[in-house]
Design brief:
The chain has 225 residues and is an alpha+beta fold. It is built from 10 helices and 6 strands.
Amino acid sequence: MASDTAPTGSVTDRAASLDPIASEPPSPRMPAGISDDVLDIVFRQARTPSRWSDAPVPQAVLHTLYDLVKLGPTSGNCSPARLVFLESRDSRERLRPALSSGNVEATLAAPVTVIVAQDPLFYEQLPRLYPQAEARSWFAADLGLADETAFRNATLQGGYLILAARLLGLAAWPMSGFDAAKVDEMFLSGQGWRSNFLINLGYADELPDTPRAPRLTFDEACLLL
């Protein structure tokens, strides 16, 4: 009996699969073990909290957090990020003079504030971190290249920290409203590191009840060449 629908595996189906115009775009395939729930936690439903829980962040969680962050790729495995975890109220109170007014309350209420910094002399570790080349000499002879590399890759590692924190059940509040020179003087002068940005970490007690702010569309922000 005739049918209006081509049977599975018919010539019509095979032709459609070969014809880029006739066929539908393939649906994105998730890697094994990745679910929509994970994408919701890391991106779709993650929000900057409007209020922090009083629950402390255990040091074991901070160690686990760093053990995830350090595995993210950096150029030549240079790994320039250095992290200072301000756990105590007193240490965050010391940060107050360096903060813009809008960041003071959230920082003092957060269980932990992370100073995401970079080590300008990161290249001294390259003989161990990247032994397959004489990479130290690339940067020791060009401090401009070293500064650019340190800043770019430490920023990248700070981004890994935000995503890893969300996967561990933490909320993250990244901040750029602060006086970097004051932070460097108060917290980093002994190490010679330079502050990049700050991240408040903790467990969210309340998320914003307002809609997420709009984002640019693919066509507005991307080019396919």
